[in-house]
Specification:
By secondary structure, this protein is an alpha+beta fold. Among the domains are: about 200 residues, Cupin (Jelly Rolls); about 80 residues, no CATH class. Helix content is about 25%, strand content about 25%. The chain is built from 11 helices and 15 strands. The strands form 3 sheets. Strands 1, 2, 3, 4, 5, 6, 7, 8 and 9 form a 9-stranded antiparallel β-sheet that branches. The protein has a 3-stranded antiparallel β-sheet with strand order 14-10-15. Strands 11-12-13 form a 3-stranded antiparallel β-sheet, sandwiched between helices. Strand 2 and strand 3 form a beta hairpin. The longest helix is centred in the middle third of the chain and has 15 residues. The radius of gyration is 25 Å and the shape is globular. The structure holds succinic acid and cobalt (II) ion. The site of cobalt (II) ion has 3 residues, from loops. InterPro entries: JmjC_dom, NO66-like, ROXA-like_wH. Its EC number is 1.14.11.47. Keywords: Dioxygenase, Iron, Metal-binding, Oxidoreductase, Ribonucleoprotein, Ribosomal protein.
Length: about 400
């Protein structure tokens, strides 16, 4: 039998069973990717080259109406930006914005960007489910933009893989794979100094453009328009290194007695030049740093914990009047359970990572991976687990914390 690579470990039936219904299985051709299978798309385009897909989601409706988007932008815990290009001058303001602080839709050349819409609205979160043929660990967020006629954010590039899905009105996109990514100086936005578009299309509702990182692009609204950006983060090597070293340091090093290890210099002689950095001190620090060690398990722990950490503005809504455990179990057995839209649950062969914390899988390996992959569990499956009081106690704790809810979203 051929060996299976760990990234393709399952047959088609298992693939379907573990995926959310909205997401195409790796080997099934889908209109979402212009008739390619997710496997073909990942091989030919992901991180490699742009792809325009006409009618990726025919009859798409914007997950939020214009007024609902404006209402989100009025909230303190939502990240929003207003970009205007009035009289050829770029300006940027950060939200929240009350609706009367926004220009009117009839005013030309402005755009409102609302980051993390998936954290605030279940319909926005539901849209992301279609894109889970790429690992959750890479997913960043759903940004929704509203633009008046002529609005846009100027020619720029991102460090993200992004699917730009047109959900209302039309937008003209121009893109180019230029090497020169220098930026105009003195502007509040990152605008390319020398944009050299090579291709141009007008996207209508349902059309989608995939761009890998660092492709120059400029989207200009033709009439009022809304665009959803499904973004996948590509952390820089610098960010990975600094986050990992920070994680290692936080984990702390203890001495043989279990106390935090301290820098020590009992043989430091008295000095006549107090400002001079003693070479022996530098040598001792070098000795401490040379002892820093990590293994593959540490790297997995770091990656899982870091990538499952909720964004800084995320607050979970614990239920106001939580059901006690018995009532929770009865309700979940009837209606099933769903991960809250803000919950990030990842797993590997040893551990699971829930909202930034690592736990050993142990007995949970029987049910947790399927819950993490589908983000829900129906009542029938819950019943099969409910004889185990450890499982129900654990899930009740998650419910009380607001990490899961009862019911399965349609
Ligand atoms: C937008 O939706 O206005 C901008 C999205 C982008 O260019 O990344
Ligand atoms: Co962009």
């Amino acid at each position: 039998m051929p060996k299976r690579s760990p990234d393709h470990p399952v047959d088609a039936r298992t693939q379907r069973a573990s995926l959310p219904l909205a997401c195409p299985a790796p080997d099934v051709a889908t209109p979402l990717l212009g008739g390619l299978t997710p496997a073909q798309f990942m091989r030919k385009y992901w991180q490699k080259k742009p792809l325009l897909i006409r009618q990726a989601i025919p009859e798409i409706e914007a997950p939020l109406s214009r007024d609902e988007l404006f209402a989100l932008a009025d909230s303190d815990d939502v990240e929003s930006r207003l970009i205007t290009h009035f009289r050829r001058r770029w300006a940027l303001e950060h939200g929240p914005f009350s609706p009367d602080e926004l220009p009117t839709p009839k005013t030309r050349q402005w755009t409102l960007l609302v980051q993390g819409a998936d954290l605030h609205d279940d319909r926005a979160r539901a849209l992301l489910e279609r894109f889970r043929f790429a690992p959750d660990a890479r997913l960043d967020d759903l940004m929704i933009s509203y633009a008046s006629d002529g609005g846009g954010v100027g020619p720029h590039f991102d460090s993200y893989d992004v699917f730009l899905l047109q959900v209302h009105g039309k937008r003209r996109w121009r893109i180019g794979a230029q090497r020169d990514l220098s930026l105009q100086e003195g502007l509040p936005l990152k605008i390319l100094a020398n944009f050299e578009p090579e291709e141009e299309w007008v996207l209508e509702p349902g059309d989608m453009l995939y761009l890998p990182p660092h492709i120059a692009h400029d989207g200009i609204a033709e009439g009022e328009c809304m665009t959803c950006s499904i973004g996948f983060r590509s952390p820089s090597t610098n960010e990975l290194t600094s986050q990992f070293l920070y994680w290692l340091a936080e984990r702390g090093a203890n001495d043989d007695n279990g106390k935090p290890a301290l820098y020590r210099d009992p043989h430091q002689p008295a000095v006549a030049r107090p400002a001079q950095l003693p070479p022996a001190l530098v040598e001792r620090v070098g000795g401490v740093l040379a002892k820093v060690r990590w293994n593959d398990a540490d790297v997995s722990s770091f990656v899982g914990s870091w990538l499952s950490e909720p964004k800084a503005n995320v607050v979970f809504d614990a239920p106001e009047k939580p059901l006690d455990e018995a009532r929770f179990v009865a309700r979940a057995a009837k209606d099933g359970i769903t991960l809250d839209r803000r919950t990030i649950l990842l797993y590997d062969s040893r551990s699971y990572y829930l909202n930034g914390e690592q736990y050993l899988l142990k007995e949970a390996r029987k049910w947790l991976p399927a819950l993490a992959d589908r983000r829900s569990m129906d009542g029938k499956r819950f019943v099969t687990l409910s004889h185990d009081s450890c499982v129900t106690a654990l899930l009740h704790e998650w419910y009380r914390a607001g990490w899961i809810r009862t019911g399965v979203l349609a």
